[in-house]
Design goal:
By secondary structure, this protein is an alpha/beta fold. It has helices at residues 14-23, 38-42, 62-65, 69-75, 97-113, 127-136, 152-160, 169-173, 175-182, 210-221, 225-241, and strands spanning 2-6, 27-30, 51-53, 81-86, 117-122, 141-146, 164-167, 189-191, 199-200, 203-204. The protein binds manganese (II) ion. The site of manganese (II) ion has 5 residues, from loops.
Length: 249
């Protein structure tokens, strides 16, 4: 099972969640919302586990955390994964839009200069802007659009650009999310939970709840859950092989 976008550090009991993930041999992309959270979050997982910690600066925290960009740059050589980053065009965040754009451009340029990263991207109410920025930094790495909620036209543009997608139970619960999921490129899709932010029946999703997303995808793709599982594992393998490993420091 694969949870390619999960906030392990934000569960009330991260150590227990990590232990359960390790027991289940889950692959987890543990995203962070601030550079200062990266080191502590990275140390939650044992070095032999299949948990990887992404370096992030969440667009909702742009204004208060832009000062952490130098720390982002310091930590970037230590991980192949960046996220959660991106843009959020919600009206309550309008005041921080310029800050968000500065951060996102900085992050993409830094990824480009570092040789490319796998990047888990937030694009709520900002899909077109996110895609335009990605076009300006084609060597930033491989964008994985998490919980994509743009229009069908924006989805088609993202597909043309070669973007990847990660989808979770919360997205697949709604009709619109299902419409998007049905059109995703099956060979560039992964599952996620976005736990503990995302919920199922008011309960925070846990990483192994990706099983719900596997069933949701099986439904819209008209495949069996086993076939979807197999496909997702192949996808993860090809994604991990798509970038050169980090140079040892
Ligand atoms: Mn998230």
């Amino acid at each position: 099972m694969i949870d390619f976008h999960c906030h392990l550090d934000l569960y009330p009991n991260p150590a227990e969640v990590v232990e359960s993930c390790e027991k289940r041999s889950m692959f987890v992309l543990s995203v962070t919302t601030t550079p200062s959270a990266w080191e502590g979050t990275d140390s939650l997982a044992s070095p032999v586990s299949r948990i990887r910690t992404a370096l992030g600066l969440h667009p909702q925290l742009a204004a208060e955390r832009i000062k952490e960009l130098p720390l982002f740059d310091d930590l970037l050589p230590r991980t192949c994964y960046v996220g959660e980053v991106g843009l959020d065009g919600s009206s309550y965040l309008r005041a921080s839009w310029e800050c968000q754009v500065r951060i996102f451009r900085h992050v993409l340029l830094a990824c480009e200069q570092a040789g490319g990263r796998i990047i888990s991207i937030h694009s709520r109410r900002a899909a077109s802007d996110v895609l335009s920025h990605l076009e300006q930094y084609p060597d930033a790495g491989i964008p994985v659009l998490h919980w994509f909620s743009g229009t069908i036209a924006e989805l088609e543009r993202a597909k043309q650009m070669g973007c990847w997608f990660s989808v979770g139970p919360a997205m697949l619960a709604g009709k619109r999310g299902q419409e998007i999921a049905a059109r995703l490129p099956a060979s560039r899709t992964l599952t996620e939970t976005d736990g503990p932010f995302a919920k199922n029946k008011q309960r925070a999703l846990l990483p192994w709840d990706v099983e719900l997303a596997v069933h949701g995808l099986a439904n819209v793709w008209k495949m069996s859950a086993d076939e979807v599982d197999h496909l997702l594992l192949n996808n993860l393998r090809s994604l991990s092989n798509a970038l050169p490993p980090l140079h040892s420091q």
